[in-house]
User: Fold this.
Amino acid sequence: MVKEVITSTKNNRVKTLVKLRQKKLLREKLGQFLIEGYKELSEALKSGVKVIELYHCPTFFRDDSYIALLEDAEAKGANVVEVTEDVFKKISHREGPDGLLGIGETWTLKLEDLKLSKNPVIMIVERMEKPGNLGNVIRSAEAAGADALIVSEPMVDVFNPNVVRASLGMVFSLPIAVSDNESVLKFLEENKITAFAATPHAESIYWDADMSGPAAILVGTEKGGLSDFWMKRDSVQRIKIPLEGKQGDSLNASVASALMLYEALRQRKG
Amino acid sequence: MVKEVITSTKNNRVKTLVKLRQKKLLREKLGQFLIEGYKELSEALKSGVKVIELYHCPTFFRDDSYIALLEDAEAKGANVVEVTEDVFKKISHREGPDGLLGIGETWTLKLEDLKLSKNPVIMIVERMEKPGNLGNVIRSAEAAGADALIVSEPMVDVFNPNVVRASLGMVFSLPIAVSDNESVLKFLEENKITAFAATPHAESIYWDADMSGPAAILVGTEKGGLSDFWMKRDSVQRIKIPLEGKQGDSLNASVASALMLYEALRQRKG
Assistant:
């Protein structure tokens, strides 16, 4: 099955792989991004993401399912390339790599492409900066069965390798769109979706809000919260998560998102 | 205020600081542990943790509140020691250090020392391995107003610097005990606390469980879940968090903990 082996860390393709990890502009220019690890690549293949190339180093494989994944990827059109241990360590961005690193083809992330259910729940993050946080929120939103996640006023690239990783590959199965506040507001209005803004300054607790109809849950940055665009808008309902501890002054973004998404789910199913 | 300055990375105390970061056995032997960062040190001082020494490098300070913290620590008995930039980089375990690193005195973490409210909620983690996960669960439990957190069959040291950090210093305000399964079970029985075990294999959803009385929420490792000690015990109620996504196969431990702790809170307050 294997047709070529890269043995030099100075190989040009190795250099491109390192740049694809670091440079958002190159990812956009080439329309390509990195997918590292068995779990993430399985999710990508399952979700129909086009895997263009698959670099692998069998020394690191953990069991035979890795071989099956290579075969599956090749059958779906991936160019499979073996590399030496040194080369793999150079292209990997993990501690404890598992010997699989793919190049995937990016796709468009447009609001107008989102397909919503009859009674949708949408997660919206505004100006989120940390890739790990975004990945974690994606994971929570996918688990809670959200229809989609919208990244408004993006500060981080959805195809950043740390987003892919923190989401455990859920970035491939959850529909995601990237947009700006004005367009997101218009989208919510057109789809008759009520926006709920999470803020410590609200009077209502999230479990007292009626999220049984079409609902969008908005969270901002850990430091500054949501912008006035959402906070000062009459059509937006402000809700808070009570902090009951002696010192507690905030919750992690993915925890806060999960609490509100699961409350919406409870109100629908409970 | 400042009496001494360490300028050499080869200073013996610098070596001890590095060892305190890495070695659990040394932390136990000396009864000392590291507290790095303004936020974490403020929480420690506020919660009455004894800060024995406070190493600092003013070049990294972000504002004047750092000076106030030094003064507060010194007034409470800390030996304040200035170090050079190079030395601080050597003793710090963060990217982007803020110039404050203290040595705190550990305290005992005994089950019998926990003081419970009349209708307590307790978080129990079994065999948790990753310090970051434990710290995040501590942060969630503190925010949800849990009475205490119990680490059963410990695999990670509560005084590990990554636990302190991921908890954002909440490790200082939330009462914590470390014990073994047999003693924890006895403690729950004596205090008439119902145990709820989180597992994907349960039939009841967590929001359908009655957590309005004295309740303990148990989570296991991300990989293996809870052990049979809890899973096969008749007195333990098994509950699950529904996973509604197309691919979702688990939730992060701190997210799962927060969902169940906030459900207990909702049932008490809602």
Q: What stands out?
A: Residues 253-269 of chain B form the longest helix (17 residues).
